[in-house]
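S.,

As promised, the iron/sulfur cluster run. Input:
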Amino acid sequence: MKVTHKKFNGGYRFKKFEGQPLTKVVDFLPSSKVETATEDITNNDDIMEFLKSFNLTIKKGINEALTDEDVHIQKESIGKIIISMTQVEPYDFPIDIFFEKDYANDFIQGIKILKDKLPNVQIHLVLCGDKLKKHETVISEIMNIDGVQVSTVVNKYPINKKELLIPTLLDMKYPIGYPSANIGVIMMEPYRIIQLYRYYKEKKPTTHYMVALAGLAWKDNLVLNLPLGTPIKEITNEYLNENIQVRLISNSLMTGLTLSMEDKIDKDTSLLIALPEGVKGGHGIDTGLHGTVRACISCGQCQNVCPVGLIPHLLHKHVEQGLVNESLANLRIFDCIECNLCNYGCPSKIDLVGSIKKGKEQLEEMEISHKDYQLKDIKEV
Ligand code: SF4
Ligand code: SF4
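Predicted complex:
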């Protein structure tokens, strides 16, 4: 097997915490009637109809000021598709599912359909190196599809973020703050490939999604196959441990949004993390409420882990001291991809990312724009 391997500086290799989702998929039927459960995919043979359900947009004139005139990406503007199967977060969706017997064939066939419908597009399947040997047979078959490149990346967070993955993998500059479609690259989750196959095979719009339950607050760390629009409350009623207070987070422990019980499963939810609130986590992960903020001890940890080579403690000090001007932009504050790794690693619990976001906002208010820094040398499609 010939596979290219890509590395980047900084980042952090998380140990795998207890509460990882298993590869066991069960059907979940909500008791209440689920509304708006169907994605709006018209039933024709145009792959763009399927891809449009991702809300892929491209800005009209990337070098112009942003307007409301964002348009769906055109077929001829797609140069590369990345199917990202990296597993670098403290909790991840169990991608092994896609290599197992119930899904592997649909996955391979889905990639073939994608390549057939978009013959000029280069497809990149990306995963962490340890998965290569484990799934050698399926991966070899995928590598035999013309125009498909399999690459491995070092399994350090945040290589799963498009702002880092695209430059690392494709050697392209990424316009942070813009959709990747603006440089002709689109990202697809592996489950979307399976949905694509079923869309063409069964001519049915997508109504169900897989959502993995991660964290120690669940009774079982299963993967649920459920209709879009399922109320989260129905899932927690059935699967959450009783009598504990929890925090629910969507998709990523590092950058995910906190969910409320009133929210519903949408098509962007693939991981539902439930953490015991305010309890020190042992081998799992807690919500980090213990300990207090202390002064910076200049340990350099935030700088060591930053995947884009920033000096977070310096940016924080500038903002804290009100030194928000061109020099802050020249320290590359607009290159921050807000991965939250510096916050995670700081022994003094300083909210470095909060300061960085504040600094960026204040610069924009002073009309020192991220566009002036992010769009230099960008090749528009
Ligand atoms: S949040 Fe920004 S500054 Fe902090 S590690 Fe990530 S990229 Fe670097
Ligand atoms: S990790 Fe925290 S304590 Fe260490 S240099 Fe950065 S801000 Fe200071």
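The longest strand covers residues 122-128. Residues 305-308, 310, 312, 336-342, 352-353, 356 surround iron/sulfur cluster (ligand 1) (CB under 6 Å).

- D.
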